[in-house]
Amino acid sequence: MLLRDALAPTNLAMIYLGGVVAVAMRCSRWVSVTTSFLSVAAFDFFCVPPYLTFAVSDYQYVFTFAGMLVVALVISTQTARLKELAVHAAVREARTEALYRLSSKLAGETRVFEAARSAATLAEEVFGARVVIFLPEDGRLSFRRRTSDLLPVPPSEESIAQWVFDHGHKAGLRTDAHSEATALYIPLRGARETFGVLAVLPDIVSNVENRIFAPEQQQLLEVFAGQTALAIERTLSQRSAEETRVNMQTEQMRSSLLSAMSHDLRTPLASITGAASTLRSQGDRLPLETKQELLESISDEAERLGRLVGNLLDMTRFESGGVELRRDLYPLEEIVGTVLQRMEPQLEGRAVSTDLAENLPMVFVDDVLLGQVLWNLLENAAKYTPPGSPLELAAFKQDDAVIIEVRDRGPGVPPGEEERIFEKFYRGQSGKASGKVRGAGLGLPICRAIVQAHHGTIQALAREGDGAIFRVSLPVESRMPSK
Amino acid sequence: MKPLILLIEDDPQIRRFLRAALDAEGYRLQESITAEEGLAQASSRQPDLILLDLGLPDRDGLEVIQRVREWGKIPILVLSARGQEKDKIAALDLGADDYVAKPFAVGELLARIRAALRRSSTRADGAGSLVHFGPVEVDLEKRVVRVDTKEVHLTPNEYKLLQVLIQHAGKVITQRQLLNEVWGPQHTEQAQYLRVYIAQLRRKLERNPARPKYLQTEPGVGYRLVPEE
Question: Which residue in B has a C-alpha nearest to residue A361's C-alpha?
């Protein structure tokens, strides 16, 4: 009442209007309209003489009341509309965000079931309800193929879900069909077919039933289901594209294999046939020395052919998954020793210095196959480096791996070819140029296949100074023999 | 009289060059194309050695080994395809003496034949008590092992392992056979014991344990003690 003395009545009216604005911002339209009327009444009651009655002594005030009411009503309705717009924007935003999260989550999924599971989990979060997706099995929808561990709906409702799947219309709770059901069933309809059924169960305890059945939530739910269906559709088509790509690669590999084979197999065969037929038809006229040479070339070329066929068979066995690892714990020393001892003829007198660390743990490997890796690496090293240049074989432990290195002092692997030399039928540029290196380009691919089967890695590195290092890294298995 | 070799092999080309090679070495040769025929000839002619191909048309070569071992100790040398370690082990465990993987050089085959024939002829007279290979001398009677005339101490298991290898010198012994003879039949699956002991033996006996000359590994199959020829 002190204010009444301090301020002019028109200014007091402003304070009441301020109150109307405050109420309009917080409360609904009807509350703020009521507040508008009440504030005019209160202004009259408290601030307009005679005080504490609704009577008005000065008729001028009637205009003040009318103006005040109009302003208060405009403010309250406008504020309320703004608020509603903001709420709508927030709903739209939440919806966009939910769909964005759905699509980014599903983008990474390459398997149908995983995509469905991600979608169901996200839907539970967004809608605050229990959501489970059922997928078909052999063309029929099955409650067994579902994204949740427990079946949250009665098994008897499988027929409703099947109906939804067949017809592509939603059914169940709060719909025209089967409204007695415990859940709402929405089809996952893609562009061409239906991929499954999404079931939503209102969570009655936390009273969100009303929320998911609000029209905009229903709409969002359907958009959500549609997006999920599209993601599944994309996953399926990606898979078939991937299959096509693999088939094409296999086809390409087969043709490059054929061309490499026909050349690499025919060359030694030609020498053998030539030498043998020469010996047969002209043997009695040839000097002894020439006969000896021809015989040697027959046996050398036969050996080369044998290695080639062996490599091809190994590679084929690896690719068809026909290699069964017979792994056990071996001291690396033993495998290295056996290889070096057996390789002596191939190494043609070249010394291989070995440097095996003292603390090496036993390795859990297939001894025959790891031996073959070392054999191929050493044979390559001997083949691609000048005669007499030193070869080294070293092994040491590094973190949780045993590292085996074959090092040479040859020309090294040309930069940029470090990866390609492990590809089938790839031959180093240097080998192509000199023409002296022969083979089907299968040694290193076989090494890689074997090492990878042991969960290890193999790489070619440039050596400080000159030369190359082929490094095999095998994880140390914790299985040690109990003594 | 020259030793008689029974060759059981169905491939005519392989029979042809083996005939030439064995003939040139002065062996007498009996050939058969099927397992059935081979078994009949093995018992009727009592050859000194059998060369057996595992892939025969009528029966599995492994069965031939089994049947021959039911009545005799004729050395059996198996001709097997490359990379089939399972077959090699099965053949050796059934009592075959050795194997040569196809394709093989004739020189290698002849060396294996000579070694097998030598073993079977010395088996009867119970080998001398002193065995030599490289720098190693083993006195089987006194159980003393010397390397370069210096005595080397072996644990009882190491000695037993060496003894078994010496008994079968020159021949491949599968891991299972070695484990059975040294540790007993209940330990035949514990191959890692064996590898640890072989590594220790190599450290004690070989000049360069990383490149063993005498105690050789047959990858995926077993071990062989190679005395110098």
Answer: B196
